[in-house]
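Tip: read the tokens left to right.
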């Protein structure tokens, strides 16, 4: 099942916001783009991080699941020096401490400072 959420911006039409396969939801990498403006949320990497997590929350809810069902996250960041600030935001969104990989990268699409992808358990019905 393909999940696309009109209120969450996409970079282009070559991917879906998420895909449900079996009992899992795979959410494509999300930038910190504010849906209201279509631009990166101002305030730097930490602000973008929070917005990307909000976008992921909306996508997961549209897929019928939630942040507390996330089992794995991958975070791409352009500045690992802000890791403690990012971890504080992460802990608010994921108090259940899912598995996480963090990678510092040279550059991200659209000049973003952060990109996050997640794998979550799909709701059982």
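Filled-in amino acids:
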């Amino acid at each position: 099942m393909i999940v696309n959420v009109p209120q969450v911006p996409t970079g282009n039409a070559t991917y879906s916001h998420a895909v449900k396969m079996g009992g899992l939801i795979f959410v494509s990498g999300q930038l910190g783009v504010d849906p209201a403006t279509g631009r990166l949320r101002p305030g730097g990497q930490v602000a973008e991080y929070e917005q990307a997590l909000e976008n992921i929350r909306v996508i997961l809810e549209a897929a019928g699941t939630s942040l507390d069902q996330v089992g794995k996250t991958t975070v791409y960041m352009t500045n690992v020096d802000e890791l403690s600030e990012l971890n504080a935001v992460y802990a608010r969104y994921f108090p259940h401490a899912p598995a996480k990989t963090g990678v510092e990268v040279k550059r991200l699409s659209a000049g973003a400072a952060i990109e996050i992808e997640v794998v979550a358990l799909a709701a059982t019905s």
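The mean pLDDT is 93. The longest strand covers residues 24-31.
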